[in-house]
Design goal:
Strand order of the largest sheet of chain A: 1-2-3-10-4-5-6
Helix content of chain A: 25-40%
Shape of chain A: globular
Number of strands of chain A: 10
Radius of gyration of chain A: 20 Å
Order of helices and strands of chain A: HHEEHEHEEEHEEEHEHHH
Oligomer: homodimer
Strand content of chain A: 15-25%
CATH superfamily of the domain at 159-201 in chain A: Hypothetical oxidoreductase yiak, domain 3
CATH class of the domain at 159-201 in chain A: Alpha Beta
Number of helices of chain A: 9
Structural class of chain A: alpha+beta
Largest sheet of chain A: 7 strands, mixed
Distance between the termini of chain A: 20 Å
Largest interface: A-B, 77 and 78 residues
């Protein structure tokens, strides 16, 4: 793939590892390569705008990696926000875009609020259903502050993302209630339930189902991508369903200039008041502090920038195999 | 108040009752009157735009009712969306705006996606805190379909809204886990826990806290309204805190033209596919259907338009007292 695009994709993966979202970091590199080998990802993709207004655009990602096209789309959203206050970009014909936070946080240096979401491989059952109809469909909202670190909410709309199940599997632990259900829709605490045909449960019941559905519609239906059970799986060993209603997977991104609503200085000052006040909220246990969304990830990034990123032995093996395949020294 | 504004406020309250959100309907009428009597709501408010770009505006609601100013703000958002694709309005210096769905659904006849959210009286504790720092801060997203009814997600970001606790109180029932905590942050199933100084819990733990915080920041900090624990209480017998950082309560509304992203016909056709497919999702129990967000409320509205709105005896008494006070025959 073009060197600039490769660098961009690597940046998104490494940012995930730095922030402690190990499931979305370099551990996925071989997965993207398998998508290419299966003919499902185009490494020479040329994304293009297929629909546009002053505050919106729709992008055809040309089957490229979301890792590459989402930052380009975010640049467009930011440019539109500079012109008319806000910018919103829907993306079709894409693939997995990594962590949502990378894209939303691109707005922060511009004193803009960044928004990103994506649909994903169906694993989550709607309320009262036992069928996998929705992805873990994350939502990220990044909001600049002044002297404090930014507010960065980055959350799956399922009760738990797949990565947390994998950790429980490795440790042989049972899951909390309401994370998964059996293939018949029964209660389960088994971390291996997905392998038995079970499904993930939405965050907090029907509200999480509604949020995941909203993300699916904005990312998939509005952009012209696939949606619901038709979203092509990330894993290359599963084929997309026949008769797809759209193209690839979809994302939805936005940028809002803070000073399109009030002076940026006033806003960042008040955000500092907001953050300080929430840090001071009275604690249930004196030693357990209250966190601002994103705070733990910023701390982990600082730590990992100093001491390095610990990789699981299986991830390291996987990277070595990639290196051998491409004739690189690791 | 001006007759047009009174009619608008009544429409929002009655729509709540029609949709089955009885806690936000005419049951609240006397509460709004008490706010006026306490000098906290201005019935002759003249909302005005205090900041503007082609796709955004900030409104000062002049201490009026959210019931009146939010529809006016939504008209502005819709007008901006007609011009530049999307429109976004932040509102400061307002009061309770009723059900979020009324405002977001105003976008639907224009083939636009409507978004509405508001902050509210602090009742919800952040994760690891025992302090009431956030409101039930609802989010509504209304999305048009073709032959099907629209998708209308309207949800509090707390595990349960206050109205559900009141129902449990009346019926003498205990609450599910994770709805409330004691004043010390301990587990509780007591529907009266708020009276004991307890707090509501966010939807599904820290993610619900993050969503409620996002709503608070977009509605409160971005608009110049109050936020967090400073949001003035709806009940007139509680005074706002001293040294408020902003004005009144805040809302955040948006409208996105569907055809700012793809042809409206294509979109509504695909929304029909989305809805049909989700209605057909395989069921856990054959007799329990899968619902589309908003579907139950549309059904209830149809039923209540035919058979009338049942009012709790205490609500009827309350309305009669209002009628006597204003010399009306009820």
């Amino acid at each position: 793939m073009p060197e600039m695009d490769a660098i961009q994709a690597a940046k998104v993966l490494i940012e995930a590892d730095l922030r402690g979202i190990d499931s979305h970091g370099v551990a996925r590199l071989s997965g993207y390569i398998r998508l290419k080998e299966a003919g499902r990802a185009n490494m020479n993709a040329a994304a293009k705008i297929i629909h546009e207004t002053p505050s919106t655009a729709t992008l055809d990602a040309d089957q490229g990696l979301g890792l590459v096209v989402a930052p380009k789309a975010m640049d467009i959203a930011i440019e539109k926000a500079k012109q008319v206050g806000t910018g919103w970009v829907a993306i079709q014909n894409s693939n997995h875009f990594g962590i949502a936070a990378y894209h939303a946080m691109m707005a922060l240096p511009h004193n803009m609020i960044g928004i990103s979401m994506t649909n994903a491989s169906p694993l989550v059952a709607p309320t009262h259903s036992k069928e996998r109809m929705l992805g873990t469909n994350p939502i990220c909202v990044a909001i600049p502050a002044g002297k404090h670190l930014p507010f960065v909410l980055d959350m799956a709309t399922s009760a738990a993302a797949n990565g947390k199940l994998e950790i429980a599997q490795r440790m042989g632990k049972s899951l909390p209630n309401d994370w998964v259900q059996t293939k018949d829709g029964g209660a389960s605490n088994d971390a291996n339930e997905l392998k038995n045909g079970g499904s993930l449960l939405p965050l907090g019941g029907h509200k999480g189902y509604g949020l995941a559905a909203m993300v699916d519609i904005l990312s998939g239906v509005l952009s012209g991508a696939n949606f619901g059970p038709w979203v092509p799986p990330f894993v290359a060993f599963l084929n997309p369903l026949p008769n797809l209603p759209g193209k690839g997977i979809g994302h939805f991104l936005g940028a809002m200039r803070v000073d399109a609503f009030r002076s940026a200085d006033e806003f960042t000052e008040q955000m500092d008041v907001w953050i300080s006040r929430f840090k001071e909220a009275s604690r249930v246990q004196a030693e357990q502090e209250v966190f601002i969304p994103g705070e733990l990830e910023f701390r982990l990034k600082e730590e990992r920038l100093n001491s390095g990123i610990p990789l699981h032995p299986s991830v390291w093996d996987d990277l070595q195999q990639v290196a051998v395949k491409f004739g690189l020294n690791l």
